[in-house]
Amino acid sequence: MRSAFLWRFESLIRNHFGNGEKNKLDVLLHGSTEVITMKSRRSRRFVNRATRRRRVTVGVVLTVAVLAAFVAAVVHYDATAKRDRDRAAQARAAAEAPPPVFTDRGTLRFGAADAPTVLTVTTDFACPSCRTFAQASDPALAGLIDGHRVAVDYDPVAIATEPKDYAARAANAAACVAVADKNAWPAWYRLMFQHQPGPKDPSPTDDRLVDLAAQSGVAGADVAGCIRGERYRQFVTAHTDHAIAAGLTHTPTVRVGDRVVENITPDGLHTAIDRAAAK
Predict the structure, then answer these.
(1) Among 181, 182, 173, which Cα is nearest to 226's?
(2) Can you tell me the mean pLDDT for 226-255?
(3) Are 102 and 108 in contact (CB under 8 A)?
(4) How would residue 55 be classed by pLDDT, with cut points 50, 70 and 90?
(5) Contact 127, 94 (CB under 8 A)
(6) How many Å separate Cα 41 from the centre of its chain?
(7) Which of 2, 41, 226, 232 is deepest in the core (most CB within 10 A)?
(8) Number of neighbouring beta carbons within 10 Å of residue 145
């Protein structure tokens, strides 16, 4: 039989050895678990960082793409809008340009191009004073033109308001007749004032204007379409606005060169022309 001492010693050794092995196993297992856990955490952090970087990269790329598309759309819109504005401006400029046979100033010249003096008559076909002036001065002006002393620039505008809209339609008709046959224009000019409506009279119709053109020797579908369609209405409006902006306050206004003639009787016109020629 073992002594109680040996049994106790062996039990202590066995217990000590068992505990040691258990501790070693626990240490190994615990250490491995910590290593695995640390590696797993590091791996997840790496994956998370990579994922975030990819998301940031994708976000930046998408943002840049959206901005690029927006900038391209704005540039395209601006270019299209500018092209449309340019086309509209060109169309407006063409519509407001003086008709063929008119001067660059928008006047209709009769007489020698190299005449030493230019007399400009700014008139309105709805203006009663313009009718009085035309009927009194036409013979004198015709004589001055024939004598090569002056060139006369007729300058129709539309500032009279009664009869309604007549002044603008008559000025448009003036351009239509001049373009169709400039040589017939003086006869038409006289005829228009002979048949001028009063301020309270009904405005003559387009058919009436076409008929007056035919009476002066200018007929045909083109001139009729020009009068009825108001082909030169935008020119008339722009030219009148320009004249008013330049200081026009009334019609008739007569200038010799750049000087306004106060006495517009035939004698007054001769005097103004003589003074201009003497300078």
Answers:
(1) 173
(2) 96
(3) yes
(4) confident
(5) no
(6) 68
(7) 232
(8) 19
> What are the extents of the domains in the chain?
58-96, 102-278
Residue with token string 């073992």: 2
* 279 burial type by CB count under 10 A (0-12 exposed, 13-18 middle, 19+ buried): exposed
Q: What is the DSSP letter of 249?
A: -
Domain 102-278 CATH (choose: 3.40.190.10, 1.20.140.10, 3.40.50.40, 3.40.30.10): 3.40.30.10
pLDDT bucket at 153, cuts 50 / 70 / 90: very high
* Contact status, residue 86 vs residue 119, Cβ threshold 8 Å: no
β-bridge partners, 152: 110, 119
Per residue in 90-139, pLDDT tens? 455 655 788 999 999 999 999 988 888 999 999 999 999 999 999 999 99
* Max avg pLDDT among 73-82, 110-119, 231-240: 231-240
Per-chain mean pLDDT for the chain? 82
Q: At what angle do helices 166-180 and 221-229 cross, to 10 degrees?
A: 150
The answer to whether the beta carbons of residues 273 and 256 sit under 8 Å apart is: yes
SS3 227: helix
pLDDT at 83 (0 to 100): 60
Amino acid identity for residue 109 in this structure? R
